[in-house]
Amino acid sequence: MTSFNLLDEPWIPGTDASGRPIEVGLRQAILNAHGIAAIGHPSPLVTLALHRLLLCLVHRVVDGPQDGAQWRSLWTAARFDADAFQDYFADRHGCFDLFSPRHPFFQVADLTTVDKHRAPTAPSPASRLAIELASGNNATLFDHSREDKPPQLSAAEAVRQLLALQINAFGGGQGSTSNLFGKHPNLSNAPLVGTVSVLIQRANLFETLMVNLLPYAGDQPMQRTGDDRPVWEQTLHRPPGEVRPFGYLDWLTLPARYVRLLPSYDRDRLVVREAFITPGLVASRLEGAYDNPFAFHREVDKRGRFPVGLQPDRAMWRDSAALFDLGGGGSRDNRPANLRAAASSRLVRVLGANANLHLACFGLANDKAKPILWRREDMPATIRLLDEPDLVAELRDSLELAEAGGSALRSALRSLAYAVLETPDKSPDTKEVSRLAQRMETKAAYWSELEPHFQAYLLALGNDLGSRRDWLLAIRDVARAAFERALLASEGSLARRERAIVKARKSLHTHLSPLLSRLADLQQTQPANPNPQEVLA
């Protein structure tokens, strides 16, 4: 019988305490979590999915943490209780077999697809499991495979992509028909589509999982409507469509796609070349009760509270003020639930009030059910940002100043483009001006140059009185340097370019003047340069 048991087969990639690459099974990942530096995969989607699986497993076995006292008890042990997990693994060993004929892990046994006459139809290529691979309508964006020559996946890679698919699959398109459920509803988005998810990372996997555990008791962290269990413990499959999850563990493992992997062999190597993939379950949006608790949100005018999504042309750190937005507390707290939990006294007590945190943000951008890009961004932060509203307000204002710097640069480059294209007898076409300004702005690379300065500012925020001044200096200097780089991309005759540059430099200085004025005020109270007038130079 073909078998690949996830408890003992190596399939979770990571690094050990010495930085060496490793691959472990679920059993080793949990029992030696204190000796594993981190887990990760080249795809951020897979990395996030692996953490969610492990978090669900820990919640299930410890049946909590019910409260702060239980969390501190778990933390103090510095490793997971081997006896408790070994008992669970022994009891549920068969649930983790990827190719079990009766209960394959995260799949539906005996699932096939059929046509309208109930005649069998061919399975899909295994490439459809991986959102970033070429398959169906997906562009060949992240790899160079072709669907007429689909790649085969190792059993380890197949389960990794299966987990990522269940949280990132796109909606849109007709549902298929299966032998078990008949006509499936149209494809719906998996739970993390359109959101950026945040994980707190620590020195080893044990600490990373611990600081991301949410209070799990009663209706925390979300409504509990039944016997809340992960999908691998559920023996009955609900009809595909919208459902109310039984609780948090059910939500974490809710199958957005009903799948059956078809194993085969490449010589002696177990691989997956094909799979049956159909629409599965989608969590009810009832009053937002089943929103992604690891997402951060933004208040949008009077329209309400919306999750922050990944934008292809906008780095995630530019929206980081929303990460720490207390919003006055209560239901208006816009922070991810794991940051809210970390803001409680439990982390301050064990890490200290001046500890630093490492935040990993994961997102996927799409356009009409097609992937555009996925991204992972890492940000440092001080623990004080989690519960000091004054620091959050300063951060928000500082990011607005960075946006003002970017706006000043855009205005200057548009002025430059206009002057370059202008002729004595004709004003330039506005579309041509926009295109030239955009080309120059791309080469200017303002935001990418500003990012390392922001990371330094974020760590110093609240601990260094000069951090605000240094941040404003960075905005000024990066905007000016970006402008000078953009000049190299300007076009037109030499004489026309010289006149245009003079006008554009004046425009940049004018639009930067509010920032320069605030910088001058700071320079007087926190002098750093021998000559404060250098700020206005």
What labels describe this entry?
537 residues; alpha+beta; disordered C terminus
Helix content: 25-40%
Secondary-structure element string = EEHEHHHEEHEEEHEHEEEEEHHEEHHHHH
Largest sheet descriptor? 4 strands, antiparallel
On the 0 to 100 scale, the average pLDDT is 88
Look at the helices and sheets and give the structural class. alpha+beta
Instruction: Report the total helices.
Output: 14
Number of strands: 16
- The percent range for strand residues is 15-25%
Low-confidence stretches: 134-147, 529-536
Give the terminus-to-terminus CA distance. 76 Å
Could you tell me the radius of gyration in angstroms?
26 Å
Overview of this protein structure:
- The chain has 537 residues and is an alpha+beta fold.
- Helix content is 38%, strand content 16%.
- The strands form 6 sheets. Strands 4, 5, 10 and 11 form a 4-stranded antiparallel β-sheet that branches. The chain has a 3-stranded antiparallel β-sheet with strand order 2-1-3. Strands 8-15-16 form a 3-stranded antiparallel β-sheet.
- The protein is globular and about 80 Å long.
- Residues 134-147 and 529-536 have low confidence and may be disordered.
Entry summary:
The protein is α+β, with helices and mostly antiparallel strands and 537 residues long. The protein is 38% helix and 16% strand.
Topology, please?
Layout: E1 12-16, E2 21-24, H1 26-31, E3 36-39, H2 44-62, H3 68-77, H4 82-91, E4 124-125, E5 153-154, H5 155-168, E6 177-178, E7 182-183, E8 197-201, H6 205-212, E9 241-243, H7 248-252, E10 257-266, E11 269-279, E12 281-283, E13 297-300, E14 304-307, H8 337-343, H9 345-351, E15 356-367, E16 370-382, H10 389-421, H11 430-444, H12 446-460, H13 467-487, H14 494-525
Helix pairs in contact: 2-5, 10-11, 10-13, 10-14, 11-13, 12-13, 13-14
